[in-house]
Amino acid sequence: MDTPASRSVYVAPSLMAALDALDEGGAETAPFAGGTWIMRAPIRHEPLKSRYVAIGKIPELHAIKVEADVVEVGAAVTHAALAVALTELPEFDVLTAAASRSANPAIRGMATIGGNLATTAFAAADCVPALLCLDAEVEIASRNGRERTGLEQFLTMRSTLAPGRLLQRIIVPRRGRKTVHARLPLRQAGDYPTAIVCLAVSLDDVGDVQTARVAVGSVEPVARRWERLEATLVGHPLNAAWAAEAAAGLADEFTGRDSVEVPGWYRVRVLPGLVRRAIAALGS
Ligand SMILES: Cc1cc2nc3c(=O)[nH]c(=O)nc-3n(C[C@H](O)[C@H](O)[C@H](O)COP(=O)(O)OP(=O)(O)OC[C@H]3O[C@@H](n4cnc5c(N)ncnc54)[C@H](O)[C@@H]3O)c2cc1C
Known about the structure:
Layout: E1 8-11, H1 15-25, E2 29-32, E3 51-54, E4 64-66, E5 70-74, H2 79-86, H3 93-101, H4 105-108, H5 113-118, H6 127-133, E6 137-142, E7 145-150, H7 151-157, E8 166-173, E9 178-185, E10 193-203, E11 209-217, E12 224-225, H8 227-233, H9 240-250, H10 264-269, H11 271-283
Parallel strand pairs: 1-3, 2-3
Antiparallel strand pairs: 4-5, 5-8, 6-7, 6-8, 9-10, 10-11, 11-12
Helix pairs in contact: 2-3, 8-9, 9-11
């Protein structure tokens, strides 16, 4: 059977060694992070690369730096490690929840934040909408240097990322906002989400929404911001029922993706309920 284990895997001892190996390997070589997506390629009937560069032993890719104005997260930080590191930072509740609710504990101990953002075909990634609503940027490394870009831009280019490039870090600004992650799993837990709504808001002196970011995941093939709902929320107090009604009026801009588990229309139908739940959690 053709499995990742039967392919050639190079365990890179340093970032430079990884970049060299990726560059030399060209299009037939890819990074191997937690392996939770790559290992299931045969189940999805997808071809494997002929060579992988394992990046899990590179120290700087495991670093989490908390500064006064920014948090930087290395691409090989696992969901579990990220959730622990951010627990004491309430402005990142959305990301802590995303990292600690995805999949199940065994997977969370392996799956990386970089893999979550880089996996092109994975519509249900929990950290992608969380980081979109936090205005995250990513740093891409290659033999020739570093390049920084917004996460929204990265999502449009990740499938055509030139060989030899590696997502190195995620950079998240600190803005003291209230944030929340609402997800609807198919069953109770340990499951891909039907839909995800992530929110980050700042409030003015009288409690009205000053800035709003809303990001939706798992509904369409790629997570994205819900800008019309963001604009609607600004200038109003947090009111879960009102926001859900507004969301119901705006949800027709989404085209839900069909899958064997859920029809596309259902993913769109549940959005107002998730908005209601998210706003109610923020208001509490
Ligand atoms: C049964 C199951 C259920 C899951 N459910 C969820 C869920 O509900 N929500 C959720 O968020 N996650 C879930 N996951 C985890 C999900 O697979 C990972 O979050 C992620 O998509 C893959 O991360 P990884 O580190 O395992 O990446 P890998 O499998 O190692 O790699 C995935 C892809 O990303 C590329 N890649 C990895 N790292 C980098 C990098 N630094 N730079 C450039 N490219 C890179 C690889 O080359 C490959 O193409 C689930 C996993 C399983 C097995």
